[in-house]
């Protein structure tokens, strides 16, 4: 099956109002999807819905594969070392991927493995988040603003990781409002609009 | 038949219709409450003869007992509303469940206050670790916990849903708490003071009790509808439909 | 799936050890209470041995309350909590695992030091095994109830006062049955009925509390 994730007319309500107009999402092997929309239009909400963190208020959601979600919080424990954080991810997600040292080198954190995660800069924490994607093998990547707090080199790193993941038969959905991913094949685009509010 | 009930239910879930229903029912409920209260109090204070042991002080039971019942019945009503709110995500039932808590808490407080006022001549002290009083005190804390939890959330919708979970947790726990407290007082009876039961009640004492029970039921329902309507106005004050309603009625 | 649970347990315990001092606080607190009581009510052995079961239990309760603020909140703030919904294990089991580690950190030390506490309060020697047994059955219930309350208050700004108000009514039966069992033995009666009831409370809590906790967490993560 080429579809890893299929959503039909999913929407989410907050305080009784729809956050965005319900959308269809289709993630296929080897394909990327960029979720676009103005600030506050619900890009993060949609990604969290697809990840299963939120329950859709309407529509249907099917998933046929393991999933990784990288939110705007890095999901890193500051009191553990970088290495310990990655080792936890390996065990927690059950399907080991790239060895920890190799993943650290890949994201440009070689030699920082023993540093406590709280001592890292925002950009370095982002890179730990990227390394987490590598050390455990998961088919669907849902990335919320993966380019945030990264420099140009970091942006290129994200692009090359995406390319590698897609080539390996994975699927990606990501939101971004600054840099657009530069990939060999153009990613699909999904524009979401905030729902009309007020009135009855 | 089933379809009609379902449609009716969904209509009640719509805030404007719910608002209208509350508005229509509320005066009737208040009137019913006033009538049954007057009848009940007349019987309770004039018709029923004084008790040969407790003289007139027993008359407080006409407030104490119905309040105690309503404190518990109110919790049950609130739990049913909470189940509906959590399962079907109907907003008006969330609001109703949240509006029920302070009313239930008020009845619990009345029950505790009248209990201890009554206890003063009976036991010689305002507070005794009697099983029923202790259970009521704990019930009051459960009510306060629900109100506090709801109030602590900025997102009222989320707060209501979280508090509904607490309501159901309380529902499971109240019988257990009640049983454990009874067990605890029977074990410590040597040190405590036991309550005088109501089983020796004379037949002439019953009609006013029934009137007062009806009165508390009506009071609860009337207050519930009014509070829910106010909460709805508060939450939806920026929405078109509520402005229309208020504009028309002012 | 078990791998995930084990991974979570290992990391939680590692974090607890790394916080060393903080993790020992509940135990220190327990002893602070136990030292203050004789200072407050007087050192008379009769009075102390009568209130010993109650004191140990109240102290255990307060100790378990202390660690609740850190049960889910740090995970909510650093984003690790939302990862639970993408994990290969059901969230309910992850919740149970987290509560188990809470019990290992707050409940188990209290059980281990209960004999010392019992000595300090002149609890009759033959009542000690029952006190230990009630702690073994009862402290997991405290963790389960505490976890539920801390999940409910997770979305509020400062939950700690609210937390204690929510927990107090729910732990009343635990306190009554546990101290009742110890008092019964001290008075030469059988504690069987109390222990049976306490065990049923534990079963009920193990079955229902993680469900309610998961539902509350989900609402607060949203």
Task: Offer a quick outline of the entry.
The complex is a heterotrimer of chains A (200), B (250) and C (222). Chain A is built from 5 helices and 10 strands, in the order E-E-E-E-E-H-E-E-H-H-H-E-H-E-E.
Q: How would you describe what is shown here?
A:
- The complex is a heterotrimer of chains A (about 200), B (about 250) and C (about 220).
- Chain A has about 200 residues and is of the alpha/beta class.
- Helix content of chain A is about 30%, strand content about 25%.
- In chain A, strands 7-8-9-5-10 form a five-stranded parallel sheet, with helices on both faces. Chain A has a three-stranded antiparallel sheet with strand order 4-1-6, covered by helices on one side. Chain A has a two-stranded antiparallel sheet with strand order 2-3.
- In chain A, β2 (about 15) and β3 form a beta hairpin.
- In chain A, α2 (about 80-95) packs parallel to α4 (about 120-135) and α3 crosses α4 (about 120-135).
- Chain B has one domain (about 20-190, about 205-230).
- Chain B is about 80% helix and about 0% strand.
- Chain B has helices at about 1-15, 15-45, 60-90, 90-125, 130-150, 155-185, 205-235, 240-250.
- In chain B, α3 packs antiparallel against α4 (about 90-125), α4 (about 90-125) runs antiparallel to α5 and α4 (about 90-125) packs across α7 (about 205-235).
- The longest helix of chain B has about 35 residues, at about 15-45.
- Chain C has about 220 residues and is mainly alpha-helical.
- Chain C has eight helices and no strands.
- In chain C, α6 (about 130-150) runs antiparallel to α7.
- Classes of the chains: A alpha/beta (about 200), B mainly alpha (about 250), C mainly alpha (about 220).
